[in-house]
Amino acid sequence: MTAQGEELISVSGLSSGYGAVPVVRSVDLTVRTGEIFAVVGGNGAGKTTLLSTISGLLRPTSGSVRFAGTDITGWSPERIVAHGLVHVPEGRRLFTGLTVAEHLRLGLWNAPNRRKVERERTERVVDLFPVLGERMDAYAEVLSGGEQQMLAIGQALMREPRMMLLDEPSIGLAPVIIQRVFAVVDRLRAQNLTVILVEQRVGQALALADRGLVMRHGRVEATGTAAGLAEDPALRAAYLGKAAAGGRRNEE
Ligand SMILES: Nc1ncnc2c1ncn2[C@@H]1O[C@H](COP(=O)(O)OP(=O)(O)OP(=O)(O)O)[C@@H](O)[C@H]1O
């Protein structure tokens, strides 16, 4: 177990891609326990590929990932999950024909103590997302987009992870629902869960995060505190839209 503020994950020189096509190029990052770390950047910058490489879905072509004091480079996704690092992919990836309760149970599918902990962990997920408690017998496909996102996060939380990789949770959601999902991520941080958050909504992600990085063409373009990144004039102009860049100019 790592204490709050201690380094939980350290990614060094990580590169990966698809076949012979390199996408992630020599990325370095470290995240401390209890932090929300935002990864932002334009379409196709390599954010999803970076998360998939950290979670073992893609093998790195070089570099290393050290998590909770152990080198997990090249481990299978199942082994990485068992070590406390879960990945909530973009698009939620729920199963048609399975209910909310079945999805939550599935989150524990290969957990050694699943029968013992299922009830208590389900209660914790429902405490975070009360709407799931009201819809336990509903099939995933009839849930709203927001409920599906909550279920995807809830399923990952059934493992009581130390770290969550959260890919584009806001996609396709109404602003009020995005706020609700982000509020839960904030609450999870207060419970010492560490999060790497990939987001297209750069302003909102940086407002929530402690630190972060900007990716461009698979490389780290900038890294630092979320507040520092949000105030950087070049980054504001590139990723926060004309209005934000204009606002900055007006302030100066
Ligand atoms: N399965 C795949 N096979 C081949 N190329 C892929 C695959 N997935 C992504 N790519 C390519 O890798 C590059 C990076 O994609 P990635 O999805 O990691 O970027 P991203 O920053 O997450 O973008 P977005 O925000 O649009 O999801 C893109 O050029 C994309 O076309």
From TrEMBL:
GO terms for molecular function: ATP binding; ATP hydrolysis activity; branched-chain amino acid transmembrane transporter activity. Pfam families: ABC_tran (PF00005). Keywords: Amino-acid transport, ATP-binding, Nucleotide-binding, Transport. Residues 9-242 form the ABC transporter domain. It comes from the Bacteria. GO terms for biological process: L-amino acid transport. SUPFAM superfamilies: P-loop containing nucleoside triphosphate hydrolases. Belongs to the ABC transporter superfamily. PANTHER family: HIGH-AFFINITY BRANCHED-CHAIN AMINO ACID TRANSPORT ATP-BINDING PROTEIN LIVF. This is Branched-chain amino acid transport system ATP-binding protein. It comes from Actinomadura viridis.
